[in-house]
Design a protein that fits this description.
CATH superfamily of the largest domain: Butyryl-CoA Dehydrogenase, subunit A, domain 3
Largest sheet: 8 strands, mixed
Distance between the termini: 29 Å
Order of helices and strands: HHHHHHEEEEEEEEHEEHHHH
CATH topology of the largest domain: Butyryl-CoA Dehydrogenase, subunit A, domain 3
CATH class of the largest domain: Mainly Alpha
Number of strands: 10
Strand content: 15-25%
CATH architecture of the largest domain: Up-down Bundle
Number of helices: 11
Oligomer: single chain
Length: 370
């Protein structure tokens, strides 16, 4: 793996750092929480203009043909700036699902910033389910009727199109189907998460679906879905790296500024030890990310194992770094006025998304046993 940044990666990093610095102040993040969908339309137009939404789209589909390493470079900068717009759903998951499909118009609309999607997969009564879907497509005339429930659909608040996982009557496997979020018989209940993002629970009651709305057939759906989930987890782990490293910078500045007993608290050896442990944890996490990137395009089993190992390492590191940051700030650290509390909430959400630590421990055990 080449650790030197390519020209594209340098441009991505420069554009991300510039946009974050110019736009994403703490006050701006607080203002976004007052929106019902937590979405910044102006920033989204900039994302499209900068090519971020087309980064992972293949060149033959009129995208930039970027690699997962390119995506990770962008996501590290995004995580450091606490950007919570639905980039992973649209710039990572959507290309992973749609790049080999027939719906090229949807992919082009997403890349241009004209349409936003959310993956509706998890169902009530399960935790990070990877098995057959209770949500079902029942044949009706030349099309289907889609019935079921989805819960905790990330980024659904700002989406206008859903990619829904469902079983098909008479077939084995899991299909992925396109559904208009505002279609008849689609009921959406949106709610904010602790980091300012907006998820939703969705009820589908015999929604009319045409045959050409099936993006991935049932026989291939699970493999495509697993790959998309792993790419999404890699992107979110990269965001966690950026957030942890930003947290370290915030804490270092605070320890130099905060005075106690007539001197900066950064001179106290006990606090220096905490900072040193945080630094080591963050760097170990970055190494784990690199390992997952090194095998991201390998076979499914090798990729899954590397992603899960990285998710455990980065998840544990993010909890340690964010909690230690709160401790270094004292009681002030949990208040909304301090940026470190926003990183704490974001890192907590990132660890739970697309499989938490416990899920990935179980997945490794299953892979090793099989």
């Amino acid at each position: 793996m080449d650790f030197n940044l390519s020209d594209m990666q340098r441009m991505l990093l420069d554009s991300a750092e510039r946009l974050v610095s110019d736009r994403y102040s703490l006050e701006h993040r607080r203002a976004l929480r007052d929106h019902h969908d937590g979405f910044d339309a102006g920033a989204w137009a900039s994302f499209a203009e900068l090519g971020w939404l087309a980064l992972a789209v293949p060149e033959e589909k009129d995208g930039l043909g970027g690699s997962i390493e390119d995506v990770a470079v962008l996501m590290i900068a995004i995580g450091g700036g606490l950007v919570v717009d639905p980039l992973v759903s649209n710039a990572v998951i959507a290309p992973a699902i749609l790049s080999d499909g027939h719906d090229t118009n949807l992919l082009a609309e997403i890349a241009a910033g004209e349409r936003r999607v959310a993956l509706a997969h998890d169902e009530p009564g399960e935790r990070y389910g990877r098995g057959p879907r209770i949500t079902r497509l029942v044949r009706r005339g030349n099309g289907f009727a889609l019935t079921g429930q989805k819960m905790l659909v990330l980024d659904a608040g700002s989406a206008d199109t859903l990619i829904v996982t469902a079983s098909i009557e008479g077939e084995d496997g899991t299909a992925l189907v396109r559904v208009d979020k505002n279609a008849d018989r689609v009921a959406t209940e949106a709610y904010p998460l602790i980091d300012g993002t907006v998820a939703a629970d969705i009820r589908l009651d015999e929604v009319d679906v045409t045959a050409d709305a099936i993006l991935v057939p049932a026989e291939h759906g699970q493999a495509v879905l697993d790959a998309a989930h792993d790419r999404a987890k890699i992107a979110l782990m990269a965001q966690a790296i950026g957030s942890m490293e930003a947290t370290l910078s915030i804490c270092a500045a605070y320890l130099k500024e905060r005075q106690q007993f007539g001197q900066a608290i950064g001179k106290f050896q006990a606090l220096q030890h905490i900072m040193a442990d945080m630094f080591v944890a963050a760097h170990q996490a970055r190494s784990a990310l690199y390992q997952s990137l090194a095998v991201a395009t390998a076979g499914a089993r090798e990729r899954a194992r590397a992603v899960s190992l990285a998710a455990i390492t980065i998840g544990e590191a993010s909890q340690f770094v964010s909690r230690s940051a709160i401790q270094l700030h004292g009681g002030y650290g949990v208040t909304d006025e301090y940026e470190v509390s926003h990183h704490y909430r974001r890192l907590l959400t990132l660890e739970k998304s697309y499989g938490d630590i416990d899920f990935h421990i179980r997945r490794i055990a299953s892979l090793d046993a099989g």
